[in-house]
């Protein structure tokens, strides 16, 4: 499946514009991480782009989320490792994250929310208005971006990155698509 085909399928299944932007952000960070680790950029990008494809159908039942998405992606013929990464990104299932891609997607998902929240509290409401030091300070504020699970973000250590480096890679990737995200 090409990236363009994947994006078309995503838009068929997700109607919420913010969720589509979230998917684009996760895709951008996953592609950036794949380049950093010398991994398959296209596969990692597809995993990021499609990780929440079932969210409109499963948002009220977190125990179905990612299982339905993985099933759909398998039916569409996506590679098994992409399907598995999508399946295990939801911690509700308790499935082992085995590959570097699995672990990267897991920690990247909430990271994008933290970064977006950081941009939105600035008067400019732009990703260019924030930096890693700003994000590190906000990371430690429990009342800030409550939905961005800090424990999951900190699991970036499982892919060999310390928090500051992970924040930096994520921010850089999202700044590259700031216009597309409207930030």
Automatic annotation (TrEMBL):
User: What residues does the HD/PDEase domain cover?
Assistant: 15-123
Domain of life, per lineage: Bacteria
Which PANTHER family does the annotation name?
METAL DEPENDENT PHOSPHOHYDROLASE, METAL-DEPENDENT PHOSPHOHYDROLASE
Q: What is this protein called?
A: HD/PDEase domain-containing protein
């Amino acid at each position: 499946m090409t990236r363009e085909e994947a994006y078309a399928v995503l838009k068929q299944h997700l109607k919420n514009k913010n969720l589509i932007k979230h998917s684009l952000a996760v895709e951008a960070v996953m592609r950036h991480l794949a380049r950093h680790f010398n991994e398959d950029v296209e596969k990692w990008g597809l995993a990021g782009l499609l990780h929440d494809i079932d969210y409109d159908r499963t948002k009220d039942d977190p125990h179905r989320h990612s299982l339905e998405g993985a099933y759909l992606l398998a039916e569409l013929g996506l590679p098994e490792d992409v399907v598995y990464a999508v399946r295990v990104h939801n911690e509700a299932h308790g499935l082992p994250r085995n590959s570097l891609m699995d672990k990267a997607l897991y920690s990247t998902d909430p990271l994008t929310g933290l970064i977006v929240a950081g941009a939105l509290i600035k008067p400019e409401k732009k990703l260019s208005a924030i930096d890693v030091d700003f994000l590190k300070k906000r990371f430690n504020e429990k009342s800030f971006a409550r939905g961005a699970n800090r424990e999951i973000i900190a699991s970036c250590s499982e892919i060999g990155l310390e928090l500051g480096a992970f924040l930096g890679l994520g921010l850089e990737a999202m700044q590259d698509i700031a216009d597309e995200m409207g930030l």
